[in-house]
Amino acid sequence: MSAAISSAHAVSGSVATLRSRRATRIRTVRSIKVRAEAEKPNFKGWREIDIKQVQLGTAKIPSGIDEEIFCSSLYQWANGLTTSGQNMPFALPQRVDRLPTGFSMAFLVSDPKGEPGTFVSCGEIVAEVVDHPLQEGQRVLMINGTGQVMDKGRLIDVDTVMQTFPNAIRNAVGMATKE
Length: 179
What we know:
- The protein is α+β, with helices and mostly antiparallel strands.
- It has three helices and five strands.
- Strand 2 (94-99) and strand 3 form a beta hairpin.
């Protein structure tokens, strides 16, 4: 009899624990939202941030490198991923464009409204070297995603690209280091 009572008590105790955890989680989410609204950073360029993108990564750039070589190296890496099918097996075709301080990699799908054989971008990974928003004189590589890249798991190729990014950054820093 005591075993039946203790197991019933344990079950009701675990339900109470779950309710407590759920309430704590709700409070945590609310406090994060309130804190985010109350503590908007006031650094230069805050109002210029595009809300329709998600930050995929950030890397500090050492001060003693040639940024032009660094950006060219990253562009060549990204372009090499897309032009050689034996490198990476991607589900979607891609297009890489050179930017003044980085590159843009677009994931392409068939245009349902256009002619057969035409493609449109369904999402992009944009990597650019910019000034650090909080530290004067520090440069960082900002990697942002737009379009369907913002929906985690929607474009499976994004994870593949992002997993190979750290080695590409290390190699680009090595190539761009002034000696």
